[in-house]
Design goal:
Order of helices and strands: EHEEHEHHHEHEEHEEEEEHEEHHEHEEH
Bound molecules: adenosine monophosphate
Largest sheet: 9 strands, antiparallel
Radius of gyration: 20 Å
Number of helices: 12
Shape: globular
Helix content: 25-40%
Structural class: alpha+beta
Number of strands: 17
Length: about 350
Amino acid sequence: MKVGVLGAGQLGRMLALAGMPLGHTFSFYDTAESPCTQSLGPTTVGRFDDEKALAAFAATCDVVTYEFENVPCNAAHAINSKLPVYPPPRALEVSQDRVVEKEFLQSLDIPTPNFRAASSEAELLDAVSAVGTPCVVKTRRLGYDGKGQARVASPDDARRAWRELGGVPLIVEAFVPFTRELSVIGVRGQDGKTKTYPLSFNIHRAGILHRSEIPAPGITPELSREAHQIAAKVLNELQYVGVLAIELFEVGGKLLANEMAPRVHNSGHATIDGSVTSQFENHVRAITGMELGSVVSRCPAVMYNTIGTLPDLTRVETLQNAKIHLYGKEPRPGRKLGHITLVSPSPDDDKALESLIRGAA
Ligand code: AMP
């Protein structure tokens, strides 16, 4: 099938790399040419509010998907009136606004941190006192990788956060003293079958994912079942098709849902080398109407992001179980340039890779 991808970043690249062996072809739509996808298919350059350009792009595709969740909903709906857009545009509506998202999760009896919405400084002060301190204040829209957030412990902090976050609508969340951060990657096919990968254990640095391990160690069968049920509820409620990620906090042996991403996710990159079917292949299988592949781990896998600068790759190459994935981007501070996955990692190799990655940062 001819798969159109809205967005031409590294996720689009890895979707194409997974989908081409299945016989599919790929094209991309983005606001600029991208080094990530240039060798994998043509890119149409246009604005996401240019309905004519989007319609012309869609006319060349059999199915359209997206690789980032801030695709304007109108754009997704406009294309969906002509051909299938997967995941369904409603998934974008739910995940683009953190308040709508948490209300949606709670409507499915999925526990989340306690929260309040605030649209003015006065409402923010009220919300902070209702939720209690410490709390985390986030912009309702367009936050990512820890951007658009502030920790608040006092009314003065709240006033400062109101100014620094730009006076936009906010969500105030109770600070969760989590044991660790996990995520569940789920996939639903066009026939309604759902599968979830073993949980990922995620470590962030400066708000950006640093390390992700699949399967997360020490997961009880109860926790694994709980995660599967959370993902299945969301996937079924949205009549979802494709891969979805839900970020979770593990606290007191239970799971709280932090946020969801209606797309393939950074915390699932280890599935490329560690799982029978990667998250990228399963997304392509789902949106093209194929059977889903097995989500079983072939071996434990640990992924490190390379951010800003690449580590010394000649030294990484000496680690026999390291798999290097570069996205073709020029180095720039804060930019995700690639990732490296260790399969069946020994503790020594894990330490060695982490120190090479940290040395480059
Ligand atoms: P987010 O953009 O919501 O994924 O938040 C980025 C990171 O901030 C998360 O991965 C957590 O490490 C931290 N964080 C977000 N919300 C909370 C919260 N309510 N309590 C504690 N830490 C949080």
